[in-house]
Specification:
Layout (H helix, E strand, L loop, with lengths): L16 H10 L2 H13 L5 H8 L3 H13 L23 H10 L1 H14 L5 H13 L4 H19 L7 H14 L4 H24 L9 H13 L3 H15 L4 H14 L4 H10 L18
Helix pairs in contact: 2-4, 6-8, 7-9, 8-9, 8-10, 10-12, 11-13, 12-13
Length: 298
């Protein structure tokens, strides 16, 4: 983490409503604590100084910093690009796997734990993926176990009891975890807690969209999670839904997403901000429709 200065003109720590909304919506306590401390200091601070003040590890600080950057509350840094699962990776031979199973106690214990979670004996191709996550990507064994458990829970929730993910799906999620910096049990547990909170909130979004109590399908869930990431709660999405039905006479996900992307660009996130800003707009003819073409991307 490079030095940052977050200026505060008064003696009190004053946060904008937008910043508070983003921090509360993301549900990341470390990110909120880091932001508050930066605001309180009001001067440049190094990573080492911040680690001492908060009694955090470098990884914990980096993870909180990355979340603030994602929320737009800190300037972005140059991102260390991790390879995608499809990119060239080391190929683990049978001899490599045998050596890891014999010489690495953590990996040896991980294999039967993963097999139990997936309900099957891991084949050579599966072991190669597991070895890549552990040895090449650098995820610790305890984090990989949490990763596999998370993938199993998600597969059962999405497809029904007894359904299990493939190791390719676990691998893809593992690379996503690496991009988020989830390289220790604490950061992974915090991420899973946030995922559980979002899963609970998912039903609120489905309700305001008139879709009842059913689970969203994958494409619907992708839209809703992106709206959560942008900082829109269910009430704000309900306003966008009303506009969508008014113009389209039905739920149109792409059109609704365009409305929210436009509001995001204009800095409107809460229902109160949206209503207040919409009231200030000049009246338009009934035939006019919002210019949303440039937001119609997914």
């Amino acid at each position: 983490m490079s030095g940052y200065i977050v200026r505060d003109e008064g003696k009190s720590v004053v946060l904008t409503a937008d910043a508070v909304e983003r921090l509360v919506t993301c549900g990341n306590g470390d990110a909120a604590l880091l932001y508050l401390e930066l605001q309180r200091l009001g001067t440049g601070v190094t990573a080492q100084q911040m680690m001492q003040r908060l009694r955090w590890s470098q990884l914990r600080l980096d993870t909180a910093e990355a979340e603030l950057q994602r929320l737009g509350l800190l300037p972005g840094a140059v991102e260390r690009k991790l390879p995608d699962p499809a990119d060239e990776k080391p190929v683990y031979t049978a001899a490599d796997l045998a050596e890891m199973l014999q010489g690495d106690g953590a990996f040896k214990m991980l294999v039967p734990q993963v097999e139990e979670k997936l309900g099957k004996k891991l084949k050579t191709a599966d072991l190669q993926i597991l070895a890549g996550l552990y040895d090449d990507l650098g995820l610790p064994a305890d984090v990989i176990y949490l990763l596999v458990s998370h993938c199993v829970t998600r597969a059962e929730r999405r497809y029904g009891p007894g359904r299990r993910p493939t190791m390719r799906q676990v691998e893809k999620e593992g690379y996503y975890w690496a991009r988020l910096g989830l390289f220790d049990q604490d950061s992974a547990a915090a991420y899973l807690k946030n995922c559980a909170l979002r899963d609970e909130q998912m039903g609120q979004y489905m309700q305001v969209l008139g879709l009842g109590n059913r689970r969203p399908v994958e494409s619907e869930e992708r839209y809703i999670r992106s709206w959560m990431d942008m900082g829109f709660d269910a009430e704000a999405v309900a306003l966008a839904y009303d506009k969508t039905v008014f113009y389209k006479k039905e739920l149109n996900w792409r059109y609704l997403n365009g409305i929210l992307r436009r509001w995001e660009e204009q800095g409107w996130h809460t229902a109160e901000e949206i209503r207040r800003s919409e009231e200030k707009k000049p009246a338009v003819q009934k035939t006019d429709k919002p210019g949303l073409d440039k937001y119609m991307k997914w």
